[in-house]
Amino acid sequence: LVTAKTSKPVMEHLADYDEIAQVVSQGSTRSTVILHNHLQVDVRVVEPESFGAALHYFTGSKSHNIAIRRRAQKRGLKINEYGVFKGDKRIAGDTEESVFKSVGLPWIPPELRENRGEIEAAEKKRLPKLVEVKDIRGDLHAHTRATDGQNTLEQIAQAAKDRGWAYVAITEHSKRLTVAHGLDKKRLLQQIEQIDRLNEKLKGITMLKGIEVDILEDGKLDLPDDVLAKLDLVISAVHSKFHLSRAKQTERILRAMDHPHFTMLAHPTGRLIQQREPYDVDMARIIHQARQRGCYLELNCHPERLDLLDTYCQMAKDQGVLVSINSDAHSIADFDNLKYGVGQARRGWLEAKDVLNTRTLPQLRRLLEKTM
Fold first, then answer.
1. What are the tens digits of pLDDT across the range 169-188?
2. CA gap 360, 367 in Å, rounded
3. Which structural domains are found in the chain, ordered by start?
4. At what angle do helices 153-162 and 185-201 cross, to 10 degrees?
5. Separation of CA 30 from chain center
6. Phi, psi at residue 183, to the nearest 5°?
7. CB count, 10 Å around CB of 265?
8. Torsion-angle region of residue 288: left (phi > 0), alpha (psi -120 to 50) or beta?
9. pTM above 0.70, yes or no
C-alpha cells in the first residue's frame, strides 16, 4: 500500500523493479505482479488522507470488514478503502484509529480482525494485550549437530545469550528418526552429561536438558522411562504414520500424553505448508487432555509449519492450556523465526501470560517439573 498524490510515477517505478518475473495487470492506481520467488504482490496507491481506511480495508478479513461496515451503516456512515463518509463528506480515514473511532471502537490489532469476537471485546474494552517478541525469555526446542542441527551446544548457548534469553532447551530427535541421526539411550545420557558440564561454565544463560521423542504408532514413547526421567522436559512428536484414521491418530497422541514424562506436544498437527496436509486429529480432545494432564502445546515457528493454528491457540487459551512458542531451531539463524510464531500467537489472541516461555527460569522450572 503506497500513498502518493500522483500514482503514475509509482507505477512506472514498480515496472522497473528487478525482482519482478511477471506483470499480471497494471492500472493507474493498482498493479499485480509475480516475483521471481513466485510470490504475488498487489500494489495499490491511495492519497495520504485515505491511508488508514485503505490499510484497514486491505488488511481484512472480509468478515471483519463487513461487520465494521454494518456498524457504520447504523450510524449513517459509509466506509470503504477511501475513507469514512457521512453523505459525500469524508470525516475520517487518514489513520486506522480514526476509522475505528468513527464507529465507536478503539483500534483493533490487525491480527485479531477475523470477526471472531474482537469487535465485541473492543466495545467492552476487553481486547487482549497481545504477546510480543520481547516477552519471550527463551526457546524450548532446538537441535545441535548431534542430530540434524548445524551448531554445537556452545554455539547454541552463546546465540541464546546474545538474544538476551535466560534459557534454551536442547531437544534432539530420538532414535526412531534415523534420517535425523536420532539419539538412543546411550547417546542421550552422554549429552545430558555434556550439558551439565557446560552449565557449570556458562554465565547468563542456562541450557535445559530435553528431547524431541517420537510418539510411536501405539502411543508409546521412543525412549525408556529411566532416561526420560533425567531430563528437564520431554517434547513428544508424531513423525510417522501420518495417514492413520482420525480416531487412531487421536488415541495415539492421547496415550502418549498419559505418559508420566510428557511435557509438550510438538508441531501438534504435523502440517508442512504447501507440502503436507495436517494429519487428521481431534484437536479439541487433545487440548482438553492437555488441560487435564497439565501439559503444554507447542506453537512451532518454522515458516513451513506455523503449527498450532490460530484457532487452536485461542481454544487452548480459553481452556487455560499454556502454549510454548518454539523455533525448532536447526541452526542459530533459525532463532529469528520466533517472530513468525509470535505473529501466529497474536492471531490466536495469546497474551504473555498464555505463553509458557515468557516465564522466568525459576517459574519455568516449576511448570516443567509438574509434567515430569
1. 999 999 988 877 899 999 99
2. 11
3. 1-46 (3.30.460.10), 50-127 (3.30.210.10), 133-369 (3.20.20.140)
4. 50
5. 31
6. -80, 135
7. 25
8. alpha
9. yes
